[in-house]
């Protein structure tokens, strides 16, 4: 699974690799819901157009979205925004929430969460 599809150059590289391998990994588009400059991801207002382009121009079929909300903001609004973008684009999978906010993510429809530090401790 690749949860970090966020730019056309990566979509092109993935499409080429998939054509050569004859099989595709599961793909999620990363959305930078907080529009933080230090984080990767498509801006929320650009997400619909990016998803359309990934499908139309590269033949890729993302099945979900992923986000990591800003650490200093409540995560609920970011999870709600991601869920709305997914719904508009017919995507059913949401990777959102980490050890500190996974319960909130589940309330907003997360289908997968990342809980590494809860299992293995802080880095």
Describe, in plain words, how this protein is organized in 3D.
This protein is of the alpha/beta class and 123 residues long. It is built from five helices and five strands, in the order βαβαβαβαβα. It has helices spanning 8-21, 44-58, 76-88, 102-107, 116-120; strands spanning 2-5, 27-30, 64-67, 93-98, 112-114. Strands 1-2-3-4-5 form a five-stranded parallel beta sheet. Helix 3 links the parallel strand 3 (64-67) and strand 4 (93-98). Helix 1 packs parallel to helix 2 (44-58). The longest helix has 15 residues, at 44-58. The protein is globular. The model has no long low-confidence stretch (mean pLDDT 95).
Annotate the secondary structure layout.
Elements: E1 2-5, H1 8-21, E2 27-30, H2 44-58, E3 64-67, H3 76-88, E4 93-98, H4 102-107, E5 112-114, H5 116-120
Parallel strand pairs: 1-2, 2-3, 3-4, 4-5
Helix pairs in contact: 1-2
SSE sequence, one letter per element: EHEHEHEHEH
| Average pLDDT reading | 95
What structural class is derived from the secondary structure elements? Answer: alpha/beta
Q: How many E strands? A: 5
- Major beta sheet, specifics? 5 strands, parallel
* Rg over alpha carbons: 14 Å
Q: Please estimate the helix content.
A: 40-55%
Strand content: 15-25%
The global form is globular
| Main β-sheet, spatial strand arrangement | 1-2-3-4-5
The rounded distance between the terminal residues' Cα atoms is 23 Å
């Amino acid at each position: 699974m690749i949860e970090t599809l966020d730019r056309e150059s990566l979509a092109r590289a993935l499409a080429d690799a998939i054509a050569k391998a004859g099989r595709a990994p599961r793909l999620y588009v990363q959305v930078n819901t907080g529009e933080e400059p230090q984080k990767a991801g498509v801006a929320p207002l650009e997400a619909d157009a990016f998803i359309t382009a990934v499908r139309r121009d590269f033949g890729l079929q993302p099945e979900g979205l992923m986000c990591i909300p800003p650490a200093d903001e409540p995560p609920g609004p970011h999870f709600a925004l991601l869920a709305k973008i997914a719904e508009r684009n017919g995507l059913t999978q949401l990777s959102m929430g980490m050890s500190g906010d996974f319960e909130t993510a589940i309330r907003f429809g997360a289908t997968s969460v990342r809980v590494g530090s809860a299992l293995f401790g802080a880095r």
